Amino acid sequence: MKELQGASGLIFNEPLLWEKGKKGRRGFSMPRRDVVPSPLDEGLAGDGPDFPDLSEVDIVRHYTRLSQWNFGVDAGMYPLGSCTMKYNPKINEREASLPGFAGAHPLLPQELSQGTLELMYRLEQYLAEITGMDAVTLQPAAGAHGELTGMLLIHAYHKSRDSHRSKIIVPDTAHGTNPASASLCGFNSVPVQSNEKGIISTEAVAAIMDEDTAGIMITNPNTLGLFEENIREIAEIVHSKGGLVYGDGANMNAVMGIVQMGKIGFDVMHLNLHKTFSTPHGGGGPGSGPVCVKAILEPFLPVPRIIKKGGEYLLSGDFPESIGKLQAFYGNFGVMIKACSYIMSMGSEGLKRASQLAVLNANYIKENLKDSLYLPYDKRCMHECVFSDRLQEAEKITTLDMAKRLMDYGFHPPTIYFPLVVHGAMMIEPTETESKEDIDRFIEALKAIVAEAGKDPVLLRRAPTRPKVRRLDETAAARKPRLAG
Amino acid sequence: MRYLPHTEEDVSSMLRAVGAEDMDDLFSMIPGSCKMDGSLNLPEALTEWELNTLMNNISKKMAVSPAYKIFMGAGSYNHYIPESVSYLLGRSEFSTAYTPYQPEISQGTLQAIYEYQTLVTRLLGMEVANASMYDGASALAEALLMATRVTKRKKVALSGLIHPYYRDVVRTYLEPGNYEIVELPRLENGKTDISGVAGMDDLAAVAIQSPNFFGCIEDLRTTGELAHELGALFVLSFTEPLAYGLFKNPGCQGADIVCGEGQSLGIPQSFGGPGLGMFACRMKHVRNMPGRLVGKTTDMDGRPGFVLTLATREQHIRREKAKSNICTNNSLCALASAMYMASVGGTGIRELASLNYDKTEYLKRGLREAGFVITFDSPTFNEFVVKFGEDFKDTYKKLIEQRIVAGVSLATWYPELSGHYLLCVTETMGRTDMDALIKEVRS
User: Which residues make Cβ contacts (< 8 Å) with residue A90, sequence separation at least 6?
Assistant: First the structure.
């Protein structure tokens, strides 16, 4: 490697907010007082919160300095498996901040809110088309919230048929939140192991599916980056015993315009607009997790639903079998605008091309690194590939060491130690927005790190050395929590 | 497409490298029966400029402030947001990062969230706050589930003056788990009648909202004492956190869990989302708390730094035993509210909250002088209920033509309060705007 991407530059130390400022400073333009003070009943007034007083400059410097300690997609490749860290188009931010959208009150009379309703209606239509499902709710705030919605729908469906089922099948290659979402609905998760090919076999499902099982939660493509090839047969088994199939669509970025989810047996699935549809992750949200269903589950969708009647859009709560509300209002509308803008910018061909390139990039990485890192499932992958640290065991170098060393090379590490089915997993998802040159540099960096592991393992164990801080003591943080200053 | 960097030459050399004949061959493992026939039926891709025109046109169909004078709160509030907050929030080092799993290169997000947690504890008078929830309503549902874990009881008492939509969300979350919800009635003065819970020794929580849906300040201390006598947790919900710039905070009045909507603190209304679920509790309950937490620690060289901590409560370690399934939350909104709280400052938040209070009192007085009855005589913050009468519907429509939205009718949620309207005033409302409303409703 000619030159490391990571270089040292001047960054600043910056104290905590309340260690700055002076009483009497202000960073806010106080609106004009055009009314007289009114007395407040005795005993009601408090002392007011102990916030620091800061000037606007204090605040701008504070957050500018903090931001410089962060790594985002705009800085470089962020191949975090399962998270789809693709480029977040800037124009989408502009659309979301249009005054008519950003300033809209959620309870405006319908004749005054046709714009937001039209946009949500459009997005529902687009997502139904992309997934091949029949109906959509945009209300869930994130992927896990979508999973919860899906579980509530399945629960309501069985209840409406006077059937009380207590179990749900969750493969070991499913997302981490799946079992937690199921248990919120009172379902016990029954694990099913993936086979030697990294996918679920029909036999494994047939062996445990029974009439006390509400359904199966299946991530497809799964978290090994592999397509569940038996999905249709698995769905048939589940359906034949009266169960439903929940599809975790977090990995939809691999198959837009290629697989029709509505055809593969899914009854309900969620999408992550902050993954597949390019809305920024925001350091942990806000996301948006729309849920798409087949017609049999439509009566149970959350309310209110958006309806088009004679050219007018309206919100209707008139769905007696609905599971109710998941958020106070209609979901993360600000995020929906960005996803809708993305779909309208990409069009049908653009979305398909994005999935093709995402899969091409992942396979290219897999082929180029499989001689350096252990590849547990040596077959064509989808949008991500999973390696492990088995070949580095002799040097006592772990996935964690390699991940941390990648930071010194100027890359965000991949997802590590997930999925759980691969010991020491390193899950790489490049996404379609990385160019061949950037991917070549990433491959080169990992190869260099593997070489270092043989020659100078201390370099890896001490990594990273270039970021603002080095490895942090997480054990001490958990043992003696210091959660506020 | 400008987001896709591959040239045809890149594609062919990469296909060669992976041993695929063409793009279709890359997907050969997918059974034909799963594949899409034909292509997606979506509108033709728009250029950046076409998209701008389309979005301008759609957004212009909306009625928003300042062109419209919107006297509407009910869980979503119009407050000024300093340009510096919007500008800083746009820094893509914050917005294009993921959850800070790799702390060495996420210290910006981590310190900012640690500061957010701290400011929230100070605002609410609590000991620990998490890194955010989705919104005020789901935060309340999670708080009640938490109370059932702490007390190992399955019954909760919920004030009927908690935002109706929040109660709807609670019902959705609690429905499958065989929980029991008792709804508490209201008193003539617009506060919750909590007397009914006396003797209920199987309650996990007593939950009220303050300021409540009618804008009235509830008696927190009394509610807390009663809850504690029953061995239940006192859960306090809110939709307007700015109130705690002026009023006594919930922590000093005995609240065990405080949760609510933080949209007022620097987050655009955006048709109801994304907002910010704020969530705080006593330190002794922290291990039952949902959501992410940032903690302070040190690095290998002894320098201070921050990490996500107490992750055993979360879903990726003991998957089935997780306290909640919340994962991605509303981190960037938490950051916005921290920037906002820092900008307003300790002195400023007091002044701003007082201004909000005084303006609301001005409108209340004006309406009273115009002959209208203010339905409840309890102290309020930013919102209050006024009786305009059964025949006000036509006036409401006429006012819309004059670009005035005269609050929210209560009839939908409280049929017995038909003809009563919930009005809201914040610092964005000028005296002339309020005078105009008073003049119009009088005539």
Answer: none
Assessment of whether the complete model's pTM goes beyond 0.95: yes
> Does residue A48 lie within any of the structural domains?
no
Contacts of B392 (CB under 8 A, 6+ apart): B406, B419, B421, B441
pLDDT by residue (tens digit) across A464-474? 999 999 999 99
Q: In 10 A of CB A56, how many CB atoms?
A: 17
Give the integer Cα–Cα distance in Å for A453 and A395.
Answer: 7
Of B35, B56, B268, the CB nearest to A102: B268
Query: Looking at chain A from residue 397 to 436, which residues have their Cβ under 8 Å from any Cβ of chain B?
Result: 403-404, 407, 412-413, 415, 418, 432-436
A111 vs A315: CA distance, rounded Å:
11
Q: Does B332 reside within a domain?
A: yes
A371 shares a domain with A334:
no
Q: Name every residue whose Cβ is closer than 8 Å to that of residue B401 and which is 6 or more positions away in sequence.
A: none
Beta-ladder partners of B186 = B192
In chain B, whose CA is at the least distance from the CA of A152?
B176
CB A469 within 8 A of CB B102: no
Which amino acid type is present at position A323? I
Q: Which of B422, B112, B86, B123 is nearest to B262 (CA)?
A: B123
Tokens of A123: 């997005």
| Residues in chain A within 8 Å Cβ distance of B336 | none
B184 in a structural domain: yes
Claim to verify: residue B240 and residue B115 sit in the same structural domain: yes
ipTM above 0.90, yes or no: yes
User: Is A109 in Cβ contact with B252 (below 8 Å)?
Assistant: no
pLDDT tens digit sequence for A347-400: 999 999 999 999 999 999 999 999 999 999 999 999 999 999 999 999 999 999
Q: What residues pair up with B203 in beta bridges, in sequence order?
A: B155
Q: Give, in order, the Cα–Cα distances in Å from B292 to each of A117, A174, A242, B274, B287.
A: 32, 21, 37, 18, 11
Q: How confident is the model at residue B315 (pLDDT cuts 50, 70, 90)?
A: low
